[in-house]
Amino acid sequence: MSENTIKRHVVGIDVSPEVTTYAVVDIQGGIQAKESFRTTDYPNVNEYVSALSEKIIMLVEQHGGYENIRSVGVSAPSGNFMTGSMENASNMPWKGRVPLAALLRDRLGLAVALGNDAHVTAVGEKAFGAARGFKNFIVITCSHGGVGSCIFLDNRPHLGADGFAGEFGHLCIIEGGRQCSCGQRGCVEEYASARGLAKTAQEILDTTGKPSVLRGVENITPQVIADACEQGDEVALETFRQTSRLLGCALATYAALVDPEAIILTGDMTSYSKWMMDELQSSFEANIFPNLKGRISLLISPLNNSERDVLGASALAWEVKEYSLFK
Amino acid sequence: MSENTIKRHVVGIDVSPEVTTYAVVDIQGGIQAKESFRTTDYPNVNEYVSALSEKIIMLVEQHGGYENIRSVGVSAPSGNFMTGSMENASNMPWKGRVPLAALLRDRLGLAVALGNDAHVTAVGEKAFGAARGFKNFIVITCSHGGVGSCIFLDNRPHLGADGFAGEFGHLCIIEGGRQCSCGQRGCVEEYASARGLAKTAQEILDTTGKPSVLRGVENITPQVIADACEQGDEVALETFRQTSRLLGCALATYAALVDPEAIILTGDMTSYSKWMMDELQSSFEANIFPNLKGRISLLISPLNNSERDVLGASALAWEVKEYSLFK
Amino acid sequence: MSENTIKRHVVGIDVSPEVTTYAVVDIQGGIQAKESFRTTDYPNVNEYVSALSEKIIMLVEQHGGYENIRSVGVSAPSGNFMTGSMENASNMPWKGRVPLAALLRDRLGLAVALGNDAHVTAVGEKAFGAARGFKNFIVITCSHGGVGSCIFLDNRPHLGADGFAGEFGHLCIIEGGRQCSCGQRGCVEEYASARGLAKTAQEILDTTGKPSVLRGVENITPQVIADACEQGDEVALETFRQTSRLLGCALATYAALVDPEAIILTGDMTSYSKWMMDELQSSFEANIFPNLKGRISLLISPLNNSERDVLGASALAWEVKEYSLFK
Amino acid sequence: MSENTIKRHVVGIDVSPEVTTYAVVDIQGGIQAKESFRTTDYPNVNEYVSALSEKIIMLVEQHGGYENIRSVGVSAPSGNFMTGSMENASNMPWKGRVPLAALLRDRLGLAVALGNDAHVTAVGEKAFGAARGFKNFIVITCSHGGVGSCIFLDNRPHLGADGFAGEFGHLCIIEGGRQCSCGQRGCVEEYASARGLAKTAQEILDTTGKPSVLRGVENITPQVIADACEQGDEVALETFRQTSRLLGCALATYAALVDPEAIILTGDMTSYSKWMMDELQSSFEANIFPNLKGRISLLISPLNNSERDVLGASALAWEVKEYSLFK
Question: I want to staple C166 with a disulfide (CB 3.0 to 4.6 A). Which of A95, A199, B113, C149 is the partner?
Fold first, then answer.
């Protein structure tokens, strides 16, 4: 009824296999407070929800108060916005369908919106990042663990008839290629993730006689490869180039089906863009349908990796209808 | 192609009959710099555009640089978003159709979006104010000069087939009532604007014998009436009450046609909400269609009057496709 | 999987207080078969649903078979599309909230969509009538029993946050006017319905000394007034003129808020358009906001009154997701 | 203003490289009259437009009259709805950008909407065919000449930022596969078109020693292959199987990005569905992302090949704003 009933803070939560981060965020995307704890400390999801809820309430009381919180947004692996559940997240301890939004709503007494990593990232990029101002765009999340995507069309996320649209990580780029955990072969994710890079590096080491600082390294991580690139290591450079060529070709296929204004790359793998963007860009332009050449921007998210997920989750929190048990 | 080509500032401009305000605003709605000058100094619109453009370029160069500006948003009297023009603004020196967006685009070399006061205000309330989180809502602008409105449906402004939807100021509330400048009689604007309040106060003074500090006051402004209310002046109190009853009834009609989640009141007249909201609320609920009773929130904008318009204009700037002459 | 699993018939049902009509309609709006019975024979809603379901199954088996029916659409008084229920229909024997769509779905084993009269009529006008080709329009239903409306914006029905948008029948046109059954005064419905016309005629008879064939008529129906008009009866003519003036003014208010391309008049009262359209048109244009003058078409539905409702209901049937218990 | 100003007929035109077909179609999709002539008789586009316009006016005058025609819809190779032009249609005599909608509008004095084959087909399937009742679906056009597609999301065609979305024919299914005329390699179109089938048959003949009635056939058309299938010819059967496997895999990729309710196959190649659907269906389900298994219907259009295109074009005609030079 009056100005002071308008709530101007939300809570954003990022649930990752290793770490859970939560923050109080104001209406302009200002992070008022942010904390985190180890997800792995809670193999039981009910104990996880209890602990998370208590921590949130404590943080909220220290920063503006519960009565100032409008709603809660969650980024969760295999999160389905339509059901509010995590559905068969492969890399989490909690199996099957976990109704995380409902569990949190019951504990917190507030409306909760939940989405998967790519969806939440795209909402955040639209609100505060590289996608602001675009109506039609694709956000690609390239992280060490895997690859996902979210399509925005006419200013809205396109989640698909069942909430599963954008499965870019499982688009087949090499017919009969590497075996993927999804059961198929040749998926993008088996090439563009950390494990994909390591396999590609190993293949180059195995099939060429090139000298390389990577030879004999037990655990070839993207950072190890990038460090080798700094020293001009040809195998390391070729690893990123091959990956970029495949990714550029897959993005060209995606773009020809959707015709977006821009494709935005996010995720921790973008730290290595220095070694990838030139080749990615050429491969994309070489493979794109002729009428689209030169029309689609490839952009890297300007958002800070440590803040992107809670910022996106906070933006998602505004999408759910306000509700408060105690109002 | 790379992160640093993403432009994260816009310019917001508020063109009012008396004063023009312009600001550099960042992607989160942070006002980096704001200045203003007298609109009335420029009776010729071309001179106005030249001066405004020069001032903007100067401000921009001092705050982040031209190459960091994505686009420009303008709030202008009788502005039509579809045409980018001011169309027959009654209280401006520049007559007929003024293609202000095109004139500014030519001077600044940047994309320019233009809307009328109510549209721009609603875009701002959606981005940063009381409308954040609502999908369906009406924003009412009640200012000294007049009354307007903008409807958002399913997260988008409904501008109508010709860009003229939301003419709430000219909804007839008293059959054969006060003559309005639009040619009709009994329009909302003739009761809920500053001149409307003054007329209502005078009518009460003329038709009742009540003592009042307003008797003999030559220029009865809303502030004068509000000051009288503070002293318990019955005529002043009744002036706000009568106005509120009429406005509540008109809002009930509006709400029954549109069925919004909330109605948000903005504009300088909301400074007097202390004397209006109780009666407005009762009248609204008394007159609303029964199925809607208790379902629609009446809210007052939390945004600062001096910042609302440039903030809204900056939010509108993100709605136009990026374009730069010099890129 | 194959062509012959595509179902190309739907069932359209019109539930009116007196009569229920149901039809098998093909994908192009061709009525294959149509029957009706007295609604009033079933004061108990469960018996009504049983009887209606049996009759439908019988008709369907005679015309293409059950396995060819995709879904069912229902037009029902005070029907809410969002809930599938009739909500407090004032002129029906079944009180409170009647979940008619769910009841029929259980009996028929098919998906059922339900809307109120104005919504269903608008869907039908969009598919087969005067609204085909318009993106933004208002459909006004003027029937003997009452007045309703439905707004289409950008090709979709705008039902409002709670499904109650478009309550045009209860827009107040005369401050403190005739008492309406909704509890308010001066509603459109009290002037533009059959009972409204009769009251207006009586008022003119009572307040003027004019001779008229209507004097002494016990039950002044619209048809009686229209017949009198044919004889040049001045009171009858004035009755339609007064009604048209009020309606034109109310439509002008509606149009100024929504700015549609067209307003389409439907319902059995349109039979008397010969005596109403000239005055309605002038009043609309005289009262419309200046920028909209001459831009908005007032059209009368070309659809047959006896078919409009089942056609509209059949069009609504295509809006619900297909489902079959027995598939 | 009145019922008889509502125009209830449109003209649908299908421009194909060989034949142009045009029809007068009523509001329910009833074809009132249909005629055709050889496109190749008019190597000059202006002469083509003149002849087509004259023929249309003649047909229209014989069937309801010009004043009853609301608008015109055109299906044209490489037609872009946003510009109303054919853009670089590779198999037409008229080169570059041909503003066909504007040329026809000038001649006919009526509003003209133009789309490409896949877009128009999808609009027709939505109005009268297999897509009626779906909100999210993909229409694939498989014709002898090539392969295209159109995505509908939330009841609207998704044309993309530049009008080029849905380039399914040029999705790469075989890395480094057959050279396509678009400049890329391995495009769907090089396998699923008539020429693709012929090449596949030839490859099987060349690489296996299997006996076959196809050996020695100079011009292996799809019909020739289908006839051989009827005789149990193993090479012919394998040709359709291989094609179906590739197509099923490509559709699975498409579906994983878009998550539609259904995929609808149209075009003259669907005549051979008897030999393709089983394998296509298995390949689709084998390759689809696990969460989507069993959820997406593969359907074949029920529309008559000789009517589909003009029906679709007639449905598109209703999407353009009415305009008449002579009204």
Answer: C149
Identify the closest residue of chain A to B322 by CA–CA distance.
A133
CB-based contacts of C113, cutoff 8 Å, min separation 6: C71, C72, C73, C74, C81, C84, C101, C316, C317, C319, C320
**CA–CA distance, B258 with A248 (Å, rounded to integer):** 47
Place of tokens 């009132």: D32
* Among C269, C270, C27, C9, residue whose Cα is nearest residue C128: C27
D228 or D323, greater pLDDT: D228
The complex's ipTM works out to 0.90
A251 has pLDDT over 80: yes
Give the max Cα distance, chain A.
75
pTM above 0.90, yes or no: yes
Residues 53-92 of C with CB under 8 A from B: 87-88
Contact D166 A257 (CB under 8 A): yes
Cα angle for residues C46, C50, C51 (degrees, 5° grid): 115
How distant is the Cα of A136 from the closest Cα of chain D, in angstroms? 7
Rounded to the nearest 10 degrees, how much is the dihedral formed by the CA atoms of A153, A155, A161, A167? 60
Looking at the partner chain, which of A3, A129, A318 has a beta carbon nearest the beta carbon of B302? A3
* DSSP collapsed to 3 states, D28-92: CCCEEEEEEEEHHHCCCHHHHHHHHHHHHHHHHHHCCCHHHEEEEEEECCCEECCCCEEECCCCC
Interface membership of B170 toward C (CB under 8 Å) = yes
Q: Does C118 touch chain B (CB under 8 A)?
A: no
Tally C-beta pairs within 8 A across C and D: 70
Q: How far is CA C28 from CA A12, C66, D23, D52, in A?
A: 49, 18, 17, 28
The pLDDT value recorded for residue A1 is 40
* Residue C199, token pair as written in the block: 């009251």
Q: For chain B, say whether A183 makes contact (Cβ under 8 Å).
A: no
Pairing of strands D31-38, D85-87: unpaired
pLDDT bin (cut points 50, 70, 90) of residue C88 is: confident
Question: How far is it between the farthest Cα atoms of chain B?
Answer: 75
pLDDT score at D174: 84
Helices (H), C77-144: 100-108, 117-128
Q: Model confidence over D109-131: pLDDT tens digits?
A: 999 999 999 999 999 999 999 99
Q: Report the length, in residues, of chain A.
A: 327
Burial class (CB in 10 A: 0-12, 13-18, 19+), D76: buried
Closest Cα of chain B to C259: distance in Å? 5
How distant, in Å, are the alpha carbons of B47, B51, B243, C58, D77 from that of B39? 11, 10, 31, 75, 53
Return the residue matching tokens 């609504």. Answer: C316
With contact defined as 3+ CB pairs under 8 Å, the chains touching C are: B, D
Smallest CA-to-CA distance from D312 within D130, D134, D64 is with D130
SS3 B264: strand
- Residue A73 pairs in a beta bridge with A12, A113
d(CA D229, CA D88): 37
Q: Do B301 and A3 touch (CB under 8 A)?
A: yes
D227 is written with which tokens? 């006839």
User: Contact, D50 vs D296, CB < 8 A?
Assistant: no
Q: What are phi and psi of C91, to 5 degrees?
A: -105, 20
Quickly state the pLDDT bin for D37 (edges 50, 70, 90).
very high
d(CA B222, CA B245): 17
Task: Please choose, from the candidates D130, D92, D151, the residue with its C-alpha nearest in 3D space to the C-alpha of residue D273.
Answer: D130
The residue of chain C with its CA nearest to that of B181 is C290
| Radius of gyration of chain D from its Cα atoms, rounded to whole angstroms | 21
Chain D interface includes A292 (CB < 8 A): yes
Nearest to D320 by CA among D21, D11, D46: D11
| DSSP 8-state code for residue A178 | S
